[in-house]
Write a structure and sequence with these properties.
about 240 residues, 2 domains, six-stranded mixed beta sheet, 7 helices, binds adenosine-5'-diphosphate
Amino acid sequence: MNMLSITVRAKCYSNGSCAIENLSFSARPGEFVAIVGPSGAGKSTLLKIISGLDTNFDGQLDFVGQARVGFMFQEPRLMPWLTVAQNLALVDASATGSRLHQALERVGLGDCSQLFPRQLSGGMQRRVALLRAFLMEPQLLLMDEPFQSLDDPTAEQLRAQLLSLWQATKPTVLFVTHNLQEALSLADRVLFLSAGPARVVLDVPVDLPRPRCLDSSGVQQLSQQLLADYPDLLKGRLACPS
Ligand code: ADP
């Protein structure tokens, strides 16, 4: 896939409110980009535009139709009447037998292929959803707060599995979160959005060695430094209101 380049001059809803204005950024092939912004900033709207689900906006995406795009949402969205194996077969019919077993082993679910979603914990369901997102071998993977509302150890385990799958296949990843430390622990680069209408207010490279835990000293120091430099960064502002 080529460089991803996104420009949204305006995305306004029919009620007249604009969720995005003058937002633009690029991502290199294989780059892991986290997108951080306050609630209601327009992050989900942005991912819907990039995924092609919403074409009603003023702007330009230069890769549409050229990339296989995967999506992982806040909820696992597994089909409850299908087993794990059948859920995965929906995106990759060749995921059977030893190939399926190996894939499930990568996320620690080697023995779960015949179970139904209701027989899995929330964390296990997310692991199936994570594997499903990678099974289609996306060139661009869009992730909308995929590990929200999990307990810390489960979320940490999923982040490690995400990084291992990403490092093996290197899709470009756009990972939306409102958790600064999660963004810094995962990404090559973090884009901070303004409160709605969304635009990019700060673009920060993260040059820390991997693997990085949320509470590693590098992540903590960078997070503290950013918040010391920009106390209102997570509210979407670089300068404090006077
Ligand atoms: P985030 O994901 O950052 O929390 P969203 O993209 O969900 O933000 O929403 C951005 C803004 O757009 C919010 O003000 C929200 O109320 C508004 N919005 C989202 N979807 C619609 C819609 N279908 N119609 C009108 N307004 C919407």
